[in-house]
Design goal:
globular; homodimer; alpha+beta; 2 domains; Ubiquitin-like (UB roll); seven-stranded mixed β-sheet
């Protein structure tokens, strides 16, 4: 498997486009389209928030059929808490895009991201649709990836290729994240494309597996949004049917690698984030406890501010582990930070503040927490909590 | 019932003392003692963190007997993650204090707060014990309350009196909080005293009831500490036996009022906090769902940063409610902020940003979230998340 360029259009059969339709006043791209030449197998993972944006409800219904031709995403407005009017807005825009693409409306999937509680400027968006569709091109993956960003600073793209069953298969994608990440994939959007051939039911299963070890293993602020969606489209253009032999395993690995890279880019670009922490929990009694513990540590504001300030206060890691509900004997707890043991047999080792500070003062800090209570393990990636996060979120929407 | 002065020594039979023993280098008071003239009924609520500080383990064991004469608390060092040595340290100090007080060691309760993973300077503390005990006085409640503070800016005291069964009964207390508040009473300490007469088993039940609607209903950063403890001592000096008639109801109300005031002082003094939000969830299907929903809203970093910046982004309230697991029909969701309806029938009302900003730009912001799914309700008090919180916690321990 090797990394390639091309993002969401790296796989054969896809084109993309991104323009400013006037939803954002900043004139940055705010309308993104990914379209396939033929109908694709399609699947998605959606937010589990009880309050769901209009496009989430529409896309869920359309995905029952397991087929789609295109994905339309706008940034700058979440189209959520907008009631029946918001549904009508989304449908009006959907109608206009489907008609310009000359595809049945039910084959268009929708997502929105941005401020909750505001209406979409439907007339503006509809006026922009011909321009959006006219600019569809395989080269336009980057501007399409730009058009889905909100407070993100950087475009997030990834793509890989691998020979499967004697032919080249590609998987690519784009994502947005920044704030409100985790648990369960909170405010993020991603579109993943592949030219492998497989039915929607299998694609759904593989996509969920890939999300479980990527987008569901990152934490920026522990909030969960109303709009999270990961779409996957499979064009079949490679001619490689993954139902044959062990090809599905190859494809899920590719999906995991692409989703994993996009997830990592999301944390790196977390609102105000200046560094990353990889939290490995080992020796847990069950996988569920391992993940619970990793999630609690990765989401703790005290751990995240400790990371921000390189404050030599590793006790916060133990406190978060102890608060997680995972069962372990505190007298056996062992913690390593940046490869150095800082807690052994439940006791903090006498490291100087200067030494501990050096362990934390690096762009990526690996933390291993061994509960010595079993064999299960889990990993989460998180970023630090900085004053910049607060500035961004106290000011957003102004 | 009326508010009175006197804090933890307002009830008859108690004296207090607070000095600097050299644990904190700042020379601020760091050692606090509350002592009763005679053995008291005693009860406590402890942290449920699996990692528990040495003093928590000692006090738990001693409280099996249901009796105590004194509570010793130090700030500046949590005596947690200190292993067998930390237990020995706590016992050495306990021995010295019990001996100076001329009480059996098992009648002394202990608590510590401060940095995790550091050892207590036992020799210094033991040297300070005669001075600490010599200064015990009914007037010294305020310096005792000062000596338990860490990053708190203000002393937290409360006391009430009421005539019960024809005689005056008093309940008073002191607390520390600031960071790491909630869920389940995370990093806070409190000592509650009363001159009512009741057995330890009843005191334990009433204390838990009072904590459930006070300390367990506040949220500063959602972290849970290794040292949380609320102690209650009942001296019986009023001569009012609360097992008679409906006196237990009167006492639990007094406990709730004192704990409620202390809890509120903790949130007001939350690390970096500049304002409060009262989150009322109404119309929930069950009490558990109501509390779950209130807790999720009160703990959401996005809600708390919105409050900090008075950012007119009330959709975040709906998103947090939807993420809580409480069952409701999003199309019936209703939200009021500062008395003004901002969401009706699941739809954000078209208020101008300036109007919404005014609703949030006040020292106390009441939020009512009606799920229209039942009759249960719950309340949480929270504070805003400011850049100051990050500065405090990124720098703590330096």
């Amino acid at each position: 498997m090797r990394w390639i360029k091309g993002g969401v259009t790296a796989a054969a059969g896809f084109a993309a486009s991104g323009i400013n339709a006037g939803i954002k006043t900043s004139r940055k791209p705010d309308l993104s389209l990914v379209a396939a030449r033929q109908p694709c197998s399609a699947a998605a993972v959606f937010t589990v928030n009880r309050v769901q944006a209009a496009p989430v409800r529409i896309s869920k219904a359309r995905l029952q059929a397991g087929a789609a031709r295109a994905v339309l995403i706008n940034s700058g407005c979440a189209n959520c808490l907008t009631g029946p009017a918001g549904l009508k807005d989304a449908l009006a825009i959907s109608r206009s895009v489907a008609s310009a693409l000359k595809i049945p409306e039910r084959q268009l999937l929708l997502a929105s991201t941005g401020i909750i509680g505001r209406r979409l400027p439907v007339a503006k968006v509809v006026r922009a649709v011909p321009r959006l569709v006219a600019r569809l091109h395989r080269q336009h993956h980057e501007v399409a990836a730009q058009a889905i960003l909100t407070t993100d600073l950087h475009v997030k793209e990834a793509a890989v290729e691998q020979v499967v069953g004697g032919r080249r298969v590609r998987v690519g994608g784009m994502a947005k994240g920044a704030g409100m990440i985790a648990p369960s994939m909170a405010t993020m959007l991603a579109v993943i494309t592949t030219d492998a051939a497989l039915p929607a039911s299998l694609l759904r299963r593989l996509l969920r597996q890939a999300c479980d070890v990527s987008f569901n293993r990152i934490s920026v602020d522990g909030d969960m949004s109303t709009n999270d969606t990961v779409f996957a489209l499979a064009s079949g253009h490679s001619g490689v049917d993954v139902r044959v032999g062990r090809r599905a395993e190859a494809l899920v690995t590719m999906l995991q690698v692409v989703c994993g890279r996009l997830a990592r880019l999301i944390v790196q670009d977390g609102e105000g984030a200046s560094k990353l922490m990889e939290v490995w929990v080992r020796g847990a009694g069950t996988e569920r406890e391992a993940l619970c513990c990793a999630r609690q540590v990765a989401s703790s504001p005290l751990v995240k501010t400790m990371l921000a300030g390189s404050a030599p206060n590793v006790g916060r890691l133990a406190a978060a582990a102890g608060a997680s509900g995972a069962r372990f004997d505190p007298a056996r707890l062992e913690i390593h930070v940046s490869g150095v043991r800082v807690v052994a047999r439940g006791t903090a080792l006498p490291l100087s503040a200067a030494v501990t500070r050096r362990l934390l003062d690096r762009p990526e800090v690996p933390v291993v927490i061994n509960l010595h209570a079993g064999r299960a393990e889990a990993r989460m990636t998180t970023c630090d909590l900085t004053a910049e996060y607060v500035h961004i979120n106290a000011g957003y929407a102004t």
